[in-house]
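hey so i finally got around to running the thing on that chain from the lab meeting. sorry it took forever, my laptop kept dying and i had to restart like 3 times. anyway pasting the input first so we r on the same page abt which one it is
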Amino acid sequence: MSFSAGVARVDITPPLGLPVGCWAARKALAQGVHEPLVTQALALSDGERSAVIVATDLVFVSAELARIVRERVAGLTGLRQSAISVHASHNHSAPSLVRGSTVGGLPDIPAFGRYADALGDLLSGAAYAAWRRLEPARLGSAVGRVEGVSGNRVDHTRAVDDSLIVLRIDRADGRPLAAVVNFATHPISVGGVTVEWDAEYIAPLREAVEDSIPGVECIFLQGCAGDVAPYDWWFGNYEASRHGYELRDRLGRTIGERAAGLYETIQGEADVPVAAETIWLDLRRRRHAYEAEELRELAAELDGPADADWPEVWPPEVHTMTSAQLFPRTYQQGAVRMYLDMLERAEEPVATQVVGIRAGEAAIVTNPFELFNAAGRRIKERSPFATTIAAAYANDYAGYLPETSDLDLVEGVPLREIVDQDEWRWAYGITNTNIDRGEVDRLVDESVALLERLHG
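ok and heres what got predicted. didnt touch it at all, straight out
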């Protein structure tokens, strides 16, 4: 068995003059670039079986974009499409591209049409380059922690999974090739305080790793961060730490420096089996008690522009944890659209792709959701692998997926109350999930079963 790996990086920074950042409560256009947004690709092979991972600085990877990339990469390399996985870091400073996503209720932005058209070629090209650069390599992994930089934004008294996972890949002669870093927290630290494109805390994270380990390509895979945010950012906390590059850089450097230290402890192996498999699940769409007539009546009341008072750059009182209370209409409109979509497609299951990739005694298993942290932790705890990355925001965007018990917290709440952002914003991610109760457990079970097959 001859293990080999290859990496590549491509600039995917959007043009200036387009709506900057994934925030509803602002109307700025991009006027600069703080640092490039990039896509990175990692190719793995054991001589018989191969896989490719594509990581991007995007907020979403739609099902349409993932399909295009898998088809083109398979055509260029001969790889099976089921061995190709496409990831978003969930960077909220990137453009909101939802075209072709599974989730309902999110509006597309036509201004990004030509940029979105180009992304398929850019991401596929990175994967092809990584594949052509395959060379003999060694791989090892380790798990650490980064404490005190994240918290549960739905209920800040809940514990969070603050584990840090690093895969170390060296060339055969010992020179660094790649460091795959996995951590879970929302990339929302810059917020709406800039008119520049930026890669959120992932940029200083990569920089910290690559400065410490010359020659390495640091590739970040976002964890299950559906209800996890940086520092003291829970919904309704008006005293939360302020947005900006200073806090962003501190967050990224803290994680990156810890990852670089963990990397140095890892011993790689050359005898590394590679395997990959994709499964599709039809998850039951959520049932709710709201009537179509009631929803359409509320939609008519909320109709109209919501951006009259939106600033270009957020003043200090506007924060990701409070923006919905200050500018509620956009969130209310989205909720009503989503509830109507659930009724209209009640009998249509949510097609859910789960990709598993094995690299020796380490594995990556993906999901397309903003999966709540506890479910991701359950997958990792039940995995047969020594090291398991549970990566969300991959191969589609299917919305939030909380634990079943969380749905009990909003059961029976009348429609006009549940859209009240002052009262129910804390439950964001629960109120607006597309998936019915119990299906999160099925996703966890099927993810673990996939890992067990890859391990066996």
